[in-house]
Amino acid sequence: MARHGELSSPGPFGFVAKLIGIVAAVVLVSGVGVAAYAVTDITTSFTADAVELEGQGSVPPDIGAIEGGVDILLVGTDECEEEYAYLFGDRCTGADAGGQLNDVNMLVHISDNPRRVTVVSFPRDLMVPIPSCTREDGSTSSSTSKTQINEAWGYGGLSCVAKTVSDLSGQNIPFAAKVSFGNVINITDAIGGVDVCIGNGGIKDKYTAINWPAGPRTIQGVEALQFLRTRHGLENGSDLARISNQQQYMSSLARKLVSSEVLSDPTTLYKLATTAVDNITPSESLTNPMTLMQIALAIKDVPFEDIVFVQYPVLTDPADVNRVVPDRDSADQLWAALAANESIEVTHDQDLTGGVIVADPPTTEPTTDPAPTTDPTAAPAPSETPVALPDNIPGQNAAQQTCSAGNVRANG
Q: Tens digits of per-residue pLDDT, 57-68?
């Protein structure tokens, strides 16, 4: 199987803020009194480095949940921050250190009623056209017919990444945010860590300094960054397998963010709010507190089953087996389901991703509580048949629990 590039860059960072709306929901509509103060207190720092998105329609703020569907792009860049440079070796300290790539590109789609959230991850090795973009200095970059998607940042920053993903997906992207290395460490620390599961006997990866046994593990700080970087420690060592492993983390993060550990603790809520805002560079469209409130209201009651993480469908690039190209037929089915606001079902066998395996269901103690009674005269609840996605679209929903498909023999 193609490994899709030897990744010297650290890989995914931005997704730890995977759903800025979920973070906003926790902070803004949790019912905790500190939330109102937090919004006012953090707005100034959040707006300082805001970025205008070129060619994307605006969404005017209004009171109440945002209307209609909306898309938010989350971009994780591999810039070398002084505090964490030592963790990445030559990538940040060698003679060739420098530059910046958008190694994480996730489109968060929030549907209209009934509300659903779908997070689409675009592989870093995906070859796509990059449009002409306006840089911060006002100059214009040339368009390309086929370039690795993680180079879009160099053509025009956050705005150019949004424009590239918009052209590829056909979605209008009025909101975007960029995050960097420190978010994994800072946000996981702010909520007291994220629970993951290590399967297949454990993970051993000399490139990320992991040597962990199988079983449940709470990761935070540097361990969170190591977990999210690893691909050599996974069953097939590919970047696509790493995306599946990241989805395990994102599902667990979503569950943690809305758990009683976070929602019922004002100190944790405020720490999370300020940490997230301090580590995010938003588009100008995301700097209005009312807009954040709208997004929060739109998704605050979305059940875990309707928060779905998927990988954009790809085919091996015929010109380079270590790169991938869009599978537009499968992608069209995904976008059509989202446009129709249909419930979606991932049909890809997770045990075949090489990144995760299906976790055993948790055991529960038998209960002696009486079975709930139902009203025989009540009308049956409406049922909806989910749209089955093509089987080359891996993913999972936030209610599902998976384990890393570890490989302790892959490397020393």
A: 776 655 567 778
